[in-house]
């Protein structure tokens, strides 16, 4: 199968490529304690905070319209920023990059995932397809998706995740549908909130239940696709939320959420936060002078 993405190895000094000056003068403020360090993929920047809440590094070159961001076990950072998916070292060196030449011009991908076997799953937004690579970057599977906005649209898909069952969960943005596909692109189930767009998703470990972020609410679905829980912006007064997009499920069952357009058009909302299943806020973070959107937020669990 033809490899639709390009792998790059760059030998330019890391400081030229990617890393800005170390930032230890962030203007943001935490209310409550995250109980772990934080990686935050933001519009135009990637931020790292230590366990005390201090910003210890900011990367803001070669970061575009952020969609998804992960800290890997080896310390590298994997992210998707519309124009491509990238993997960088902790010092900012660009190690690998994937682009979709079949996607035309525009927003290629907002989603990337490292699988348990070392492979990489890309959500190719423009093509409305899942691309899966093995650990050596050989394209092993292309899965067409059903819920198309229109070819080349900015709004075909956001997050996509391969499950332990070998299926694929995809947030089909404009259609407001989280669909589960098999390896041939057949729809196995769908979960939706009518008249909503969908951005992020996360499967509850050890189950087939799924959380989805539908911009003004977070919804949990059971294995049959039925809604069993919902948290709306109105359930979280005082956070001034705009659009809830990023989602992480912590080991204790809490949800870590990122807010899109937190600092845009005069808004200065909470940028990222954590809630319990009872909808209680554990911690929140604001930074009126920070990036406008927080779209890939992960709390790293502290060592036992």
What does this structure look like?
The radius of gyration is 18 Å and the shape is globular. The protein has a single domain, classed as 7 Propeller (Methylamine Dehydrogenase, Chain H). The N terminus is likely disordered. The protein starts with 13 loop residues before the first helix and ends with a strand. By secondary structure, the protein is an all-beta fold.
Question: Which parts are unreliable, with pLDDT below 50 for 5 consecutive residues or more?
Answer: 1-24
Distance between the termini: 44 Å
> What order do the SSEs take from the amino end to the carboxyl end, as H and E?
HEEEEEEEEEEEEEEEEEEEEEEEEE
CATH topology: Methylamine Dehydrogenase, Chain H
Number of helices: 1
Task: Supply the CATH superfamily name.
Answer: YVTN repeat-like/Quinoprotein amine dehydrogenase
Percent helix range = under 10%
